[in-house]
Amino acid sequence: MGVEPGAAETREEHADGASARDERTDAPSDERTHAPVEERRGTRLDDRWARVLSTPRRRALWYWGGPIIVTLIAAVLRFWNLGHPSTIVFDETYYVKDAWTLLQNGYESSWPEGADADFAEGDTGIYQDSPAYVVHPPLGKWMISLGMAAFGAGDAFWWRASTALAGTIAVFLMTLVARRLFASTILAVIAGLLFAVDGNAIVMSRVALLDNWLMLFALLGFWFVLLDRERTRRMLDSAIGEARAAGREPHYGPALWARPWVAAAGVAFGAACAVKWSGLWFLAAFGIYLVVVDAVARRRAGVPFWLTAALLKQGPVTFVLLVPVAAVVYLASWTGWLVTDGGYYRHWAEEAGNAATGLFSWIPLALQNLWHYHEAAYGYHVGVANPHPWQSNPLTWLFMIRPTNMYYSASDDGSGGCGADTCWSSIIEVGNPLIWWAAAAASIYLVYRLVRYREWQVGAILMGLAAGYLPWLMYLNRTVFQFYSIAFEPFTVLALVFVVGLVLGRRDDPTWRRERGIAVVAIFLGFVLLVSAFFFPIWSGVPVTPTFRQLHFWLPSWG
């Protein structure tokens, strides 16, 4: 730690009660004045880093290179040995086979009993023409099918490849979102790194389930909302400034139609809904958020009737740009079901007594069939309560009390590959405890922070967290699982990164403050990486000894 000239002498003066210079001067000590010593700011590391980024080319390299590096780390953790296990894992029994029959028939088809083992062995043509009753929209399964469409379904790697790619893209997107929120590349890289090495994010990228796609589209929609926020603020200020320069008082302000990022958000949130209906909450939450942001922007710009304008003038415009776009994307995801004849309930309205009469008789029968399908699926969702050994209560999700064990196998003949006679392999969707518990604490702190300081970044993060998490509190008796939390995990990580930024401080902070902040963050990240390395075998199905596996159960409910 560097010491400025004279600082050591000043400390000695305070310690001894008198300066050694008192003995070398004739002037009384109480007649002398001491010039204040300016407190040093920043650290040597800050100075070195400033020199490293001293040219535009180097800054651009760091601007993109940092996010790319953490994305490559994410890719390795998600694609390494992705084809193991070669069997169908957990709910892949639904989504992988549904994805394959979507490719073949255009709708999800039924399979004979015991088809999982045959499918895993490469016998992928045993599906039937009769439809399967499924309760989730098709888009996520279409996305899962991409790898199989390109390379076939004979290898488990290709069942999961597109989902792993989605998880990798999400890490890069996370860095873009964080940089937009915090205006800091180092915080963006930290956000990407935390998401890259967390176990929940890794596991959900390595199994072909729907939830990773829901997360990706919701995060993409959030990024578009952030892009719109800054652009619209500039447009609003410019329009109001021009009106006042022309002598017109903008009582309500303009209605802004040129907002392509809102339409893009509609596409993304519509895609999220087309993966799982819980994406609707993200659409609703950020639709409200856009109206609130507009109201705040108009108030700050001095618009007299800012609230009325936000609700009744700009609000309907925002709705038109967002919601119908999302609806079109959602409906388009059902194209395969609509253009074929074999889907479940595809001809329901053609049966006697089912078709709509009166006011709604004009609706095409295909859409009436689709509406009935949605009614039936909704009834299933709100009523499902079949006990499952790995179900978890949503009240515990932030604290990761009951993660899902998605795969388990054991061998006792020494052939398991762990170096012992008995080897166990697992895929347990448990996050990195340091990340999860710190993120949970940070999320709770941000609620206080929003009330106390009203920072826009905090409000945006908490809106995403609320959209992904709070609706599940209405279904505490349903059979639900911890891995649903992947949909809102990006927002808990962003909450953690916000707090990391507070701890890290700024380069113009006092040296002692800045040094402590850097040290705390560096130590935390170091331990995060060590814990992730320790847990990776049970995230990826690596054979381990029973004792080593047991060491990962930090809570009794994990086993």
From TrEMBL:
Segments of skewed composition (Basic and acidic residues): 9-40
Class in the EC hierarchy, top level: transferase
UniProt GO cellular component terms: endomembrane system; plasma membrane
Chief place where the protein resides: membrane
Family annotation (InterPro entries): ArnT-like_N, PMT-like, PMT_4TMC
Parts of the chain that traverse the membrane: 61-80, 157-178, 185-203, 209-227, 280-297, 317-339, 434-451, 458-475, 481-505, 517-539
Keywords: Cell membrane, Glycosyltransferase, Membrane, Transferase, Transmembrane, Transmembrane helix
Pfam families tied to this protein: PMT, PMT_4TMC
Ranges where the record places region Disordered: 1-40
Pathway recorded for this protein: Protein modification; protein glycosylation
Domain named ArnT-like N-terminal: residues: 142-226
Protein O-mannosyl-transferase C-terminal four TM domain segment(s): 367-558
Subcellular location: Cell membrane; Endomembrane system
EC number: 2.4.1.-
Any GO molecular function: dolichyl-phosphate-mannose-protein mannosyltransferase activity
Superkingdom assignment: Bacteria
Membrane topology field: Multi-pass membrane protein
Family: Belongs to the glycosyltransferase 39 family.
Function: Protein O-mannosyltransferase that catalyzes the transfer of a single mannose residue from a polyprenol phospho-mannosyl lipidic donor to the hydroxyl group of selected serine and threonine residues in acceptor proteins.
PANTHER family membership: DOLICHYL-PHOSPHATE-MANNOSE--PROTEIN MANNOSYLTRANSFERASE, PROTEIN O-MANNOSYL-TRANSFERASE 2
Protein name: Polyprenol-phosphate-mannose--protein mannosyltransferase
Organism name: Agromyces badenianii
